[in-house]
Each structure stands twice: as structure tokens, then as C-alpha cells.
Write the C-alpha cells for this entry.
Amino acid sequence: MGEVLVLVEQADGSVKKVTSELLTLARRLGEPSAVWVGPGFDDAAAVALGEFGATTIYVAGDESLRKHPVAPVAETLAQLVAEKAPVAVLIASTADGKEAAARLAVKTNSGVITDAVDVSAALVATQSVFGGSTVVHSTVTTGTPIITVRGNSVAPEAAPATPARVDVTVALSAAATKATVTGRTVATKGGRPDLTEAAIVVSGGRGVGSAEGFAVIEALADSLGAAVGASRAATDAGWYPHQFQVGQTGKTVSPQLYIANGISGAIQHRAGMQTSKTIVVVNKDAEAPIFELADYGVVGDLFTVVPQLTEEIRNRAN
Amino acid sequence: MKIAVCVKQVPDTWAEKQLQAADSTLDRESADGVMNELDEYAVEEALKLVEAHGGEVVVVTMGPERAAETVRKALSMGADAGVHLVDGALHGSDALATSYALAEVLTGRGFDLVMFGSESTDARMSVVPAMVAERLGLAQLTFAQKVDVAGDVVTIQRVSETGYDTVEASLPCVVSVVEKINEPRYPSFKGIMAAKKKPVETLSIADAGLDAARLGLSAAWTQVDDFAARPPKAAGIVVPDEGDGGAKLAGFLSEQKFI
Ligand SMILES: Cc1cc2nc3c(=O)[nH]c(=O)nc-3n(C[C@H](O)[C@H](O)[C@H](O)COP(=O)(O)OP(=O)(O)OC[C@H]3O[C@@H](n4cnc5c(N)ncnc54)[C@H](O)[C@@H]3O)c2cc1C
Ligand SMILES: Nc1ncnc2c1ncn2[C@@H]1O[C@H](COP(=O)(O)O)[C@@H](O)[C@H]1O
């Protein structure tokens, strides 16, 4: 069986859930090899990757690889593609992941498919386009298939393996080092699941009315162990940090359950949440287009409905 | 400073988008064409940079005849000139082909900055700016929510998963912007009138010296095997809140085993 390269997504040295999903998918296509780019690789990461079936882990651990955006990742992958001739390269569909895929595609003269929600053993990628209204199957016809896959598209299944670690040295080209990261600013509100990985997302929009109003959204989220999201109206107003924006220009989420509160359902918002498995809506305007997506909707004031729901959930939990 | 802004004409955001049965490409005829909304932010940012530092803004597009409307719109916002790559043989070009064509058209024109929107609302790939940077061997400063130019150093705030990274490079470089960066201006009446007199260079693939074998549907690196409309979602349950809306919702969530 051919090798399948899986680019590891990490946050502060720990392997993100989407990587287990990619490894699960990769096992359908061939033998999964994880590719770690940057410093911070450790035993815990090796265990996490082995659990989902990585048989080899390529570690390009040089500090310099993290100092420049995107290009070093693409060059590491390009070097491995040239050496290993993998059957495919799988990358998470994040902003960085798509750009790494883009540069890799140019370097290796290979086709790239972004935002796949599934990949078959025959390397046919499934995409959900136009706000989820159309399902497309496509294949890469030239070069090594490079496919970026959305988080939460496949259920991760463990298949323990004991991975061999292979250290990789990458000599960066002059072009790859032209842009330099001089600082990282983390504006995150900690303590809740990652928005793109969460099984449940509770979102608030303009209807929440203020930054203080988000307390009711957060309380509901916490009662469900959920992540909090926001519409652009809410992030633009400064009520909630930008990185929690869901939608076309925010995050794409695909949780088991999405609860939209005080959100009208503009096309740009839908673009980021339409593939959620179950959608619940609370909005006081019965005409709001978001109700078209709802599996269950309540027409009412979120400031009465949401606290009552939170209370019910807490009571049931006790 | 000489700035190129790559803009794309896309079907109106609100239009139903469809693939055509004949060749699985996007049906661009049945919907009104508009400038990709995200590219408006790139045009705005370029105009601001030129207002602050001097120079000129050239908009570059690849697309069918009617994409000229989008060039015109950018000119009426204040851009100085346009370049329109239009050729029947471009139909069906994928991201790799588009980036190849744009990179070739941009080469040799002396641009200090090449700007993009962060994503086209039809393809939604967010790959063309990175591909063009790769092809031109230029620094990639993408997903910028803030751009500053001081001398020949460009510093941006690159939106990250958890906040933003500060990234810098020397000119020339490639920049893409996100919608948080500014508020695009509306063309004024004066701007619309002035746009009619601004120069637009129209290029065929031969004029641009492009290799036809690398363009169009037949050259694409990927192919659509098939597509289908997703069956419309069954209508859900919508209830008015009669004082027990939250409790009813809890009932639904419990039925669905979420609680
Ligand atoms: C280039 C571009 C990119 C964009 N990207 C995004 C994106 O990524 N994500 C995004 O979300 N938007 C995006 N937008 C913005 C989008 O078009 C909408 O403006 C935005 O989604 C509206 O947010 P909203 O639904 O919270 O606000 P509104 O449309 O104002 O809706 C508020 C809703 O709250 C309801 N409401 C008010 N008070 C209450 C109450 N007390 N209880 C219950 N309901 C109440 C109202 O009935 C209304 O339906 C983008 C726009 C552009 C142009
Ligand atoms: N045909 C085109 N002509 C000019 N610019 C384009 C074209 N296609 C994409 N772009 C630019 O690339 C950006 C990202 O597009 P995409 O990678 O398709 O999401 C857009 O916002 C435009 O700035």
C-alpha cells in the first residue's frame, strides 16, 4: 500500500482533533504517515498520532520553520512528496492549511481540492458547495492529489500503531524566508472547546445586543460543554472577539448541534454553519431566514428562552 | 508605489449558484455579475495606501467579456487603470491555471505590491494569492486585517486561528486582505464619470504570451466527476415561545440525545 502524507495540525505542541480525522481518512487510501513541521514534537504527540494509525512520523523540527508563514510547510511537504511519491497528501482545511496546499500544488505541479468533506478509497473527494446546496465529487487528474479536508467531516477511529520517527532536514529556499513572523498575539477566550472542533456550537448575533448579553450565550454553551460562536454583526460591534466569527469570512463549523441565537441567517453566515448536523434557532422574528435551516426553532426573545433552556439542562444534569 | 489589485467577477452573492450540466462549470450567465465582495476591500486598501504614500492602483482581472464591468467598478472607486485578460480558451481554468495566468500578466510591470481579496465567493478556495506568491517568488503576506507600509517594509496583522500574527517583509510582496480591514467606499458620481476615461488594457492569451496548453477546462489539474443538488432539508419544527420555549427546546435536545 502506498504512503499517504497527513500534515499534523497542532496547537501549542498538542495534536489537534482534525489530525485524527485525517489519519482515519488516510487509512482508507493507504498507509498514513504524519508530517510534523516546526519545533515542539514530543512523546505525547507521537502517542496521539500512533493511536490513529500513523506508521511513520516525519519530524521537520527546526525552529526556523515556524518563523515564516506557510512557505516552509509547503517546502517540507514538497521535499517529502519528491522523496516518497505518496498516493495523496491530506491537509486540514484551515486558512494556513489551504495556503500550504496551494503552494505545494504549484511546487509539485499537482491538482488541489479544498474543503473536502469526504475522500473515498479511489481518491474521489466529496465537497459541499454553494452553501451546501450542491454536492460535488471530484478527482485530481495531474500529479499527487492534494486534498484539504474540513474538520468534523469524519468520525475519528482509533487504530493503534507504533510509529517510527524519521527526522527530516529542510533547506528553505530564499523565497520561503522573505516573510517573517515577528509576533503572535493570542486573543483567545480560553476554557471552551475549539470552535472548529466542538461537537456543539452555541452562537449569538446582533440580537444579543451587547458584550454583556453574551453571558447568556456563554452560560448555555457551558451547560452543554459547547464552543461559543458569533455572527459578524456581533464581532464587528466588538461584543465578541473576531476569531469566534462563524461564516464565510470567519470559521466554517460543522458540529453535531448548532444553536443560533439572535442571528438572522444571512448568506455569509450560513456559508459557515450550513453543514451542521442539527440546527436549532432562537429568534424573535418568525420571518428570519435562519428558520429555513432549523430542525427545531423557537420564535421568541432569546433573553427568556435561552436562560430557561440553560436552567432545564442544568436541572436534567443534576 | 505601484499596486496591482487582482479582482474577480463572481455571480451576485444572493443568486442561486448552479453548475452547468454540460461541463460542470459554474453557470455565470444566469446570475448578475458583481465584483467579488472581498476584492472590494483589497481595492479600498490599495486606494488608501496610494492616498497615504503616493503611486497608482492597477486592477487586474481574468474573466469573460462582462468581467469588464468589475474592472470599471474598481476604476470608479478610484483605481487608475485596468488590465483585463479575456479569452474563450480560459473558460474552465482552475486555481492553478488562474494563478499561472495572473502571475504571467503581473510579471514585468514593476508592481511593488500585488493585492488580493482573501477568497472568491464562488470558488471559495483562498488559494490564488498563495499560488501567485509561490509562482512569483515573492513574500506572502496574506489574510491581513491591517497593513502598514513604512519605507520598503510592509507589516501586516495576519489573522490566525487564535488571534493574529504580525508578519513583515520587504517590497515587493503579495498581500491578501480580510473584510475586517476597512469599509470599502461606494463609487461617487464623479468617480463613475471619470472611470469612463481611464485606460483598460484588454489582453488575449496570445497577447499575454500564455501557454494555452496550461489553461482552460481541458488543462485543469482537477476534474468534477459528477454533482447533484442536495435534497432540500425537510422542514423543521418551529414553535412560538409561550413561556415554555426553553423547556420545549430542552425536550427536543433530550429527544435527540444531546442532553
Ligand atoms: C464580505 C462579507 C463577509 C461577511 N462574512 C460574514 C461571516 O463570516 N459571518 C457572518 O455571520 N456574517 C458575515 N457577513 C455579514 C452578513 O451579511 C450579516 O450582516 C450578518 O451575518 C448579520 O448578523 P446577525 O444575523 O447577527 O444580525 P442581523 O441580520 O441584524 O440579525 C439579528 C437577528 O436577531 C434577532 N433578534 C433581535 N433581538 C432578539 C432577541 N432579543 N431575541 C431573539 N432574537 C432577536 C432579529 O430578529 C434578527 O433576525 C459578511 C458580509 C460581507 C459583506
Ligand atoms: N479570475 C481572477 N481574476 C483576478 N483575480 C482573481 C481571479 N480569481 C481569483 N482571484 C483573486 O484571488 C483571490 C482568492 O480567490 P480564490 O483562491 O479563488 O478563493 C480573490 O479574492 C481575487 O483577489
Remarks:
- Helices of chain B lie at 37-53, 68-77, 95-106, 128-136, 189-195, 245-255.
- The CA atoms of residues 139 and 203 of chain B lie 27 Å apart.
